[in-house]
Prior knowledge:
- The complex is a heterodimer of chains A (158) and B (207).
- Chain A is of the alpha/beta class and 158 residues long.
- Chain A has four helices and seven strands.
- Chain A has one domain: Beta Polymerase, domain 2, CATH 3.30.460.80.
- In chain A, strands 1-2-5-4-3 form a five-stranded mixed β-sheet.
- The two termini of chain B are 55 Å apart.
Amino acid sequence: MKTSELAASLTAKFGGRILGVDEFPGLLGRVRFDPAIATELFRTFRDDLGFVHLSMVGATDWVDHREVFYALWSDTDRVYVMLSTNLPPDAPTVASAVPIWPSANAHEREAWDLVGVRFEGHPDLRRIFMPEGYAYHPLLRSFKIHEPEDLEVKVRSD
Amino acid sequence: MSGQTPVPPKAVGPPAAGGAIGDMPLEVIGQPGVPFVEIETLRAREFIPAAKEALSSLLKEQAEEKLIRPVFNWAGRNSLFPLHWGLACCAIEFAAAFGARWDAERFGVVPRSSPRQCDLLIVNGTVTWKVAHKLIALFEQMPEPKWAIAMGNCATGGGPFRTAYSVVPGVDKLIPVDIYIAGCPPRPENMLDGILQLERLIKERGE
């Protein structure tokens, strides 16, 4: 499968909700999509295109938006594809990939813990690195290191 | 006193008519007209039991100060039981100190597996905010008297991870620390030196 073929098949199914399919070195391509179609797109990739393995979910704070990206692996084509979506910083919410790929569980908890992206439909969206009750998402650009020095906030009391 | 005619006390203030002087209110004593003998008797009556009590409690205090506490201090400081709790690479040096080559047990230092059997917490490694409340819970479970050693740069001040969002910059933000051991990681000799310094500290403080 070529990147252009992938772009054609995705655009035929989702139309303008696919914001672009870019060439990317080492990958089949980088698919930018509207977060509203996340679940259908995931299901298409797993069931129709054969990307059975989700190897990574990550998130980045770009100040004016937050980007969530997914790396998928196809056993049949032996190729990776990257999915990417942009979320508004005031409501960074996207559908969870756990119902489609269970391996997304820990990755999405990490993205919630550190960057503050909420995944709708995640079965257990708890913090994974920082203690429960911690008030910040430390990989946001707005986070100041060691500020505030509030031990009550940082150490869980129970 | 002998040969004197006892002068009946004049009523000063509100003494009870016909009452013994022992029943007089204390404000009356020392007032003009109250006989000296009676006052002395009264004072002795009150003083002797109080003196006995004071003396026995003083003896008790002395015995505790001079005998019991030094013995407990000597016994405690020569049998420090640290908690067997490894956090990071310093725990390797901690473990090596109890091996054949350095043999910390010759100083009476025996690691125990339960905080309730311990009187020394050696924090050997990087403490993250996520493990911080567990560290506090372990320290609070230890019976008094108890001491803490911050072993290595991470426990002392965060070490190379001091500016990381997830690392406690110094374990003394969480628990009171008595001895800081520098090094990354400190060698077992350093750890033994820290324990001996702690023993000296315990002796000086008389805990």
